[in-house]
Amino acid sequence: MAAAFEPEDLLRLGSRREDQGTAGYQAQKARLRRMKESDPQVRFVYLFRVLPESGRVVFLGDSAAPGATGESLPGDEYRHAAASPGLQEIIRTNQPATEGPRADDFGTWVTGYAPIGTWTAKETAAPRHILGVEHAAADWRRALVRGGLEWAVLTWVLLGIPLGAWLITRRQREQNEVIRNLSEAMEQSHSAIVILDRDSRIEYANRGLSRLTGYGRREMIGRSWRDFQASEGGDTAVPEIHASIRAGLPWEGEWSSRRKDGTTFPVRGGVTPVKHRDGTLACFVAVFDDVTETKRREAELREATELAQAGDRAKSQFLATMNHEVRTPLNGIVGFTNLLLETPLKAEQREYVQTIRVSTDALIQLTGDILDFARIESGKVKLEPLPCDPRECIEDSLDLHAAAAAAKGIELLHHIAPDVPAEIVVDGGRLRQVLVNLIGNAVKFTAQGEVEVTVALETGTGEPDACRLVFAVRDTGIGIPADQHQKLFRAFTQLDDSTTRRFGGTGLGLAICRNLVVLMGGKIGLRSKPGEGSTFTFSLAAPVASPPPVPPDLRGLRVGLALPPGPLRRELGGLIRAWHGEAIEADSVEQLPADARELRLIDVSGDLARELASNPEPAAGWVQENALGLVPITVSNELRMALRRHFRLLINKPVHHAALFTLLTGAQAIRPEVRPRTKYPGLRVLVAEDNLVNQRLIKRVLENLGGLPTVVENGLETLEA
Predict the structure, then answer these.
(1) Distance CA 402, CA 408 (A)
(2) Mind listing the pLDDT tens digit for each residue in 390-404?
(3) Residue 141's pLDDT band (cuts 50, 70, 90)
(4) In contact, 631 and 652? CB cutoff 8 Å
(5) Mean pLDDT, residues 413-442 taken together
C-alpha cells in the first residue's frame, strides 16, 4: 500500500488543518478511503509525517469519512506515538514493523507500519512519511484460531501491506497508461476530434481540428460547434446533425465546415453520443476529415468515366459502321467474282479470278475476326438465347468447311449422342461461330485423315430442366506441344512465326472462341500432342427446350455400304446399326453380296466417278433406283449431271444424319428430275438496297435467273414503286 504514494506528492502537502481543502489533500484522502474499502478487515488507514526538527509525529490524513467522529486532520499530533513500539521501531530502523494487540480510545488493534519512500542519513532534515494500517484485534485472533499459526498471520499482514500497495500502484499505472495512450492517439490523429457537451459547446478539440480550421484550441473551447459549420445553399446536413444531437442519436455523413479565414471546405465524418452508466447523456464525440481532395478525385473519376463511356459509345458506333462499310465492298467482290467465274474464261484468267475469290474469302475472315474480337473485348456482344437444335448447328458448321476439306481429301465426321436434347435454349449464332472457328482450324492444320465433331450429355447438372453439353472437335493434324496449350487462347497468338507464314490467320480465332464460351457460361480446353492431332473441347450449360428425339428405326432394312475402309464407313455403318438396320460393308460395289444390293450407299470419288461419268448408260446389273451416291460438295455441275444417270440421288458429304434416314426410308418413292439450273422467266422482283455495288450484284444475279428486277434505294421508294 505504501508504494501507492509518491513521496514528492506528500512533500507538497501542508500539515495544517487549513490544507484539507486543497486538491492534493483531497486526492490523498480519497486514496486512503479506497485502501480501507478494498479490505473489510482493515479498520483504519493513517498517513503520518515525522517532523525532522522536533521528531513529533503528526497526521496528514486518515481513512475516516470527512467530518466523522475521530477523524484525524492535517497537523493533528498523534499523542500515542511515544508509546507505540512499532512506530518507534520504524522511525529508528526505517523497516516495516507491527505492534499489538493494543487498546486505545477507539478499540483494540493490531497495527502495521510501512515507510513511504527510501530514507537515508542525508535526508534527516526532510520530513519522513509512514503508512499505518490497523486491523481489529478480534479479527486478528479469529485469523490466528483459523490458521493456528500466529506468525503466519503476522507475516501475511506484513507482506500484505507492500503487496496490496504494489497491486494498487500497478492498477493505477495501467489505468494511467491507457489514459495517456488514448490522449496521445486523439492528439496525434490526423482526423479532427471534438468533444461537445449537451448544448453543443466544445469541451475538447485536438490538434487535427486546429490544423483543419486554423483556430487555436483556446479560441474554440467553450464556443458552440455551430460557429465552425457552414450551411451552403440547400445543404441540410448541419440541421440534421444538431437534430440528432438533441435526440441523443448517432449521425454520419458529409457537411461543410468553416475555416478561420472564412473559407469553407467539405468534411465527412460522424457524431456519436456518449452516455453515463445510468443511460443519461454525458457528451458527444465528433470525428471528421477534410474531403476536399477526395471530392476532387471523385470529380476527376466521374469525368474520366464519362469520357470512357463516350469513347465506348464512339467505339460501338465505329464498329457498327465498319462492320457494314467493310463487309459491303467485300461481299461485292465475292459476288461479282462468282459471276465472273460463270462466264467463258481462259485457263489463266480463271486461275486469276479464283485467286481473287480465295484472297477475298481470307480478307472477309480476317476483318470478321478483328471486328468480332473488338466487340467482345468492349463488352458489346449480347447473347440472344433461343431454342436451337445442336444437330443442325454441327451439320451447318461442317457444311461451311466441306469444300476446303474435300480439296485436301479430309473426311468430315460427326457423332451426336442419342440422349442429347432435340433443342436447347442458347444463342445459336454464337454456338455456330465457335464450332465454325474450331472446325476451320482443324481443317487448316490437318493434311490428311479426318476431322470429327462430337457432342455428349454431361450428367449431374443438378437442374431437372437444364443440361450441360460437351462439344469436342478432333483432328488428325500436326498436334500442339503441351507448353503451348494456354498460349493459344491469347489474342494474336500462334505457335510460331512459321505457322503464320504456312497457314495464315490472325491468331484471333481461339481467343474469340474462349470469350464466347465464357460469355455463354462454359469453359474451353485442349488435349493434344505433336504428331497425334488435337481435340478441342468446350462445355455449355443450357435449358432444355425439347427432349431427345425418338431414335430412327430401320428394322428389316439391309443397306450395302460400298466405301473404302476408313472413318466414314465406320460412321455410317455404326449409324445404321444404331437405328436397328443391317449394314453390309464392302470396299467396292462388286464386293457387295447380292442380297445387299437392294439398297446401296456408294462412295463416288476419284476413278469411280470418272468411270461412271464416261458411260452414257448404267452397266448391266446396276439398279439405278437402289443406288445412292456419296459425293464431295466440290463436284462440278457437269459431273453431277453425268453421275445422275447412274444414281437415284446424290448425297453431298458430310452426310446429314436426319436427311440420310429420310432418304433410306423413302428412297423407293424418290425420282429426282435431272434438269439445269432453275430459271424464272418474267418474274418481277422489287429490290430495296442503298449500296450501288450491292444493287448491281443483286440485279445481275436476278437477271441471270430470268427475273425482271426493279431496284430502289430506300423504303419510301419501295412504297412508291
Answers:
(1) 10
(2) 999 999 999 989 989
(3) low
(4) yes
(5) 93
Give dist(CA 653, CA 395) in Å, integer. Answer: 10
Q: From CA 98, how far away is CA 190, in angstroms rounded?
A: 56
Average pLDDT over residues 237-264: 85
Q: Which of 366, 369, 503 is nearest to 434 (CA)?
A: 369
Distance CA 203, CA 224 (A): 10
**Better-predicted residue by pLDDT, 705 or 536:** 536
Question: 462: phi > 0 → left, psi -120 to 50 → alpha, else beta; which?
Answer: left
Question: ∠ at Cα 230 (229, 234), nearest 5°?
Answer: 135
CATH fold, domain 296-375, is Helix Hairpins (1.10.287)
Give first-to-last CA distance, the chain, whole Å.
115
pLDDT for position 668 = 41
Distance from C-alpha of 321 to C-alpha of 339, rounded to nearest angstrom? 27
Q: Within a 10 A sphere around the Cβ of 81, how many other Cβ atoms? A: 16
CATH of domain 558-669: 3.40.50.2300
Assigned C-alpha cell, 116: 513511504
Superfamily for domain range 382-546: Histidine kinase-like ATPase, C-terminal domain (3.30.565.10)
Residue 338: pLDDT over 60: yes
Q: How confident is the model at residue 334 (pLDDT cuts 50, 70, 90)?
A: confident
195-206: pLDDT as tens digits: 988 888 898 889
* Model pLDDT, residue 371: 75
Q: List the single range of 7-11, 84-88, 496-500 with lowest mean pLDDT.
A: 496-500
> Could you state, in order of their start, the residue ranges of all structural domains in the chain?
2-178, 189-290, 296-375, 382-546, 558-669, 684-720
The residue written with cell numbers 452414257 in the block is: 616
Dist. CA 589–CA 45, nearest whole Å:
127
CA distance 337 to 359: 11
**Beta-ladder partners of 252:** 270
2-178 — its CATH code? 3.30.450.20
Helices 292-341, 347-377: crossing angle, 10 deg rounding: 160
CATH superfamily of 189-290: PAS domain (3.30.450.20)
567: helix, coil or strand?
helix
Cell of 83: 508509546
Q: How much is the mean pLDDT over the chain?
A: 81
Start-end of H helices in 56-149:
85-93, 137-147
What is the SS3 assignment for 275-342? Answer: ECCCCCEEEEEEEEEECHHHHHHHHHHHHHHHHHHHHHHHHHHHHHHHHHHHHHHHHHHHHHHHHHHC
Instruction: Out of 10-24, 579-593, 613-627, 663-677, pick the least confident.
Output: 663-677
Nearest to 608 by CA among 563, 659, 652, 660: 563
Q: Where are the beta strands (DSSP E) in 596-707?
A: 600-603, 627-632, 649-653, 684-688
- Signed CA dihedral, 405, 407, 411, 412: sign only: positive
Give Dmax (Cα) for the chain: 156
pLDDT of residue 231: 67
32: confidence class by pLDDT, cuts 50, 70, 90: confident
Q: Where are the beta strands (DSSP E) in 162-250?
A: 192-196, 202-205, 229-230
Over residues 235-247, the mean pLDDT reads 78
- Asked if the model's pLDDT at residue 149 lies above 50, the reply is no
DSSP secondary structure letter of residue 436: H
Residue 285, beta-bridge partner list? 195, 272
